[in-house]
Amino acid sequence: MINIEVDPKVINTMLQEAIDDRVDKIARQKYFLTYSELSQYLNISKPIIEDRLIKNGLKYYKVGSKYLFKKEEVDMFLDELTQSMTATNNDLKFYQRIQQEVSNY
């Protein structure tokens, strides 16, 4: 039988390093995204953000002349939007037209 001994100091050091790494990653995450950052994050243009997302209810915050988007809200909005689409109806433009027609009745 093999007997393995582990030094508690080594374990504590490794654990502390893992905790420090995770805290650093969390601290670097952005809470708000600017238009430009949101455009890069989603890989879509500003006009598409306005036309397809904001008009469909994406929440934003205006601070002076700057528009900010809460990253967590963006992720939740996109999750809800994509869940409402089906495999046969996954075109956002089509989805918007249907939503508009339903609201006109």
Automatic annotation (TrEMBL):
GO terms for molecular function: DNA binding. InterPro entries: HTH_17, SinI_DNA-bd. Transmembrane segments: none annotated. Residues 32-80 form the Helix-turn-helix domain. It comes from the Bacteria. This is Helix-turn-helix domain-containing protein. It comes from Paraliobacillus quinghaiensis.
